[in-house]
Amino acid sequence: MHVPVAIIGAGPSGSLLAWILRQRGIESIVFENRSRAYVEGRIRAGVMEQNAVDLMIRAGVGERLQKECMYQPGVEIGINNTHHFIDFEKLIGIGVTVYGQSEVTKDLLAALDGVGHNVLYETPVTGVSDHHGDKITVTYEEGGVEKTMTADFVVGADGYHGASRKSIPDGGIKMHEKTYPLGWLGIMVKAKQSKPTAFFSFHDRGFALLSMRTPDIQRLYLQVANDENLDEWSDDRIWDELDTRLGTEGWELIRGEIFQKDLAPLRSFFCEEQRYGRMFLAGDAAHIVPPTGAKGLNSAFADISVLSAGLIQHYTKDDSSILDQYSKLAVERNVQTQRFSWANTAKYHIFPGTNSFERRMQQAELEYLVTDETAQTSYAKQHTGLPFAYWPEL
Ligand code: APR
Ligand code: PHB
Q: CA nearest 205: which of 227, 220, 222?
């Protein structure tokens, strides 16, 4: 069997690409090693850049998003129990959008399902070969039986642990990685909003973040160690720590029922190239960012915007000029997103072993940010997201 495009992974990257290609009549198959319920239920962040929202709308899958999303004109920044609002909309004319990324995945998978698209759930890809041949080969396991198929192109949209990147021989692509001695303890809470926008707080005891999913569901995080034991965090201990790090005179964090607790270590990783022969890497397969910039899904969508534009141009106009630039354009944008996510992590977190001088300088940097309009404009541009190099013709 041969398909034009074989997509590995039905996360946001793979499902959006399959959907966009289908809109232009380009055939693809999607391999996903998990069940649909598992993919839809995975814990994810909830902030979308305007370009990511616009891509969903242009692709015709933005209806529920537009109805249920919460637009936010800026963010609040906490500095050792003082609160400061940065008004992105006033500074640069756009804000950000809160819409759960698991909702994005649900919308995309439902759209693909609705048109009967070929998404093979519980069908892991075990290998990719012949990257540099006339066609590329995908090996997968269906119902316990190993099978192969060929494609013009493979898109590795199979996340950090996927099979696509692992199929590249050692040294085939240069990669960079950093692990942090930090983790985020996250909670989902049934409660009303304590603030109208997300609230990023620097505190001598560690970073804390107040975010939301809907007006009645809040999402909060505490900086903890990367090997923290969740069992040691009772609900009361979490709330007390959040109060300590987020609180200020005359404002109270609204508490509610905690219905989910999770722990995530922080990591930065990226590939210097996002193409290896006939295989393209997109989304988490090519780059992971610490969550401090909320860039995971947004950079995945930036990749897919350029990659889908390139594949559409290749198949409809017999012109590969965008496709041939994909790796360069994607990496150029992603390295800047990496820098922002890394710098933002350094800005807000207390790293083990830092002394009072270093913490005071961190505080001074944030004090500069909340008082200087030029610094705020630069922050606003980065937080709301860099442009997409190409958009698919839809
Ligand atoms: N074969 C088939 N599918 C695989 C394989 C494999 N060998 N390995 C992994 N997968 C699947 C995973 O089960 C997962 O559903 O690939 C998918 C990859 O999805 P994500 O990890 O969500 O990656 P991506 O789609 O690039 O998501 C981009 O969105 O919500 C955010 O945190 C998320 O930052 C990430 C971003
Ligand atoms: C979230 O709402 O989950 C969220 C918001 C902002 C971030 C990270 C996560 O930077």
A: 222
All domains in the chain, ordered by first residue: 2-47+98-178+267-349 (3.50.50.60)
Q: Which residue lies with its CA nearest to atom 7 of ligand 2?
A: 294
**How high is the pLDDT of residue 43?**
79
Instruction: Write down the pLDDT at residue 160.
Output: 97
96 lines ligand 1 (CB under 6 A): no
Atom of ligand 2 nearest to the CA of 98: 2
Rounded Cα distance between 233 and 254, Å, is 19
Phi, psi at residue 240, to the nearest 5°? -65, -40
Write the CB contacts of 363 (distance below 8 Å, at least 6 apart in sequence).
79, 80, 202
φ, ψ for residue 124 (rounded to 5)?
A: -75, 140
Q: In a 3-state reduction of DSSP, which class is residue 62?
A: coil
Task: State the closest ligand 1 atom to the C-alpha of 140, by its place in the atom list counted from 1.
Answer: 1
Residue indicated by tokens 């961190």:
362
In angstroms, what is the span from residue 9 Cα to ligand 1's centroid? Answer: 5
For residue 223, CA distances in Å to 18, 241, 253, 294 come to: 36, 10, 17, 15
Kindly give the distance from the C-alpha atom of residue 169 to the centroid of ligand 1, in angstroms, as a whole number.
21
Q: What is d(CA 163, CA 147) in angstroms, rounded to the nearest whole number?
A: 15
Is any ligand 1 atom within 6 A of the Cβ of residue 12? yes
181/115 Cα distance (integer angstroms): 45
Low pLDDT (below 70) residues in the chain:
none
